[in-house]
Description:
Elements: H1 2-33, H2 37-48, H3 51-62, H4 66-91, E1 94-95, H5 98-119, E2 123-124, H6 126-147, H7 159-165, H8 171-202, H9 207-217, H10 220-231, H11 235-260, E3 263-264, H12 270-286, E4 291-292, H13 294-311
Helix pairs in contact: 1-2, 1-8, 1-10, 2-6, 2-11, 3-4, 3-11, 4-9, 4-10, 4-11, 4-12, 4-13, 5-6, 5-11, 5-12, 6-11, 8-9, 10-11, 12-13
Amino acid sequence: MLGSLAAVAFGLVVLIFASDRLVASAVRVTKAFGVSAVLIGALVVGLGTSLPELLVSAIAAGDGQLDVAMANVIGSNTTNVTLVLGSAAVLAPVYSSMAVLRREGALMLGAVVALAIILADGQMSRLEGLVLLGGMAVSLWLLIRWSADHGPSELLAVDEVEELVDSHRKPSVEIVIGLVSLVATVYGANVLLDGALDLGERLGLSATFLGVMLGIGTSLPELATAVAAARRSAPDLVVGNVLGSNLFNSLAVAGTAGLVGPAVLTDVGALELWFMIGAVVLAGVFARTGKLERWEAAVLLGVFVAFTIVSY
């Protein structure tokens, strides 16, 4: 028990410091190359911090526990648009352009709905897994193509962020530092997650609930980087983080799990799927004005609490 508590504390410390450094590097690279902050957030931060979900789901599916793998994906998607986005918006209002919401946001919603449709019959085949992975390849192509329409975000021109941009390090060095920070972020999340899951097992929690908790736990890198981005006044990175992570979860993570261990689902039902879709739609409705207010963030956090209670 004490060892698990120590793992939770250590993982949390690593997670906070590494994620903060990751955001700093992402901002500097964005400014140096004139690349869209949304693309950096979606591809580098969003996809990178989704590696825990990929590993957990692939291992679970390979062990014949597709329910745990899918509960992990559903829990992570729901957590990203409620806890992650809500926590960031509580610290500072989150802004995003309507172009981003209409294209990248719609793409993410389509991925979530596609996953729900595939899981609606209570099973996943290898063919369906391949379809999702194909959708991920198309989505990456679209994100890269659309990024040409985004200039460097004016929302990043804030005093606190300008201090980051004044770094004398070369962009190549900053990329290396960012990648190391990304690895450290994922490592810290895994240590924290292992400790938390051990505590959960000692309390006798069900496999399905542990699967949802895995989803919440593996979203800790997204939560940490989103909070760090909000603190550094980089809202486009927050949006890109959430969009990229949910896109990756719904297509790449779920697709890989289906390819590795296709099976019939016995525990994941319609309620969890509807909760996931509802949370994504609600976040989209709140963001339709291009700005997520603190009271809207509070509602999203309330939805997260409700999801956790329902999952139990």
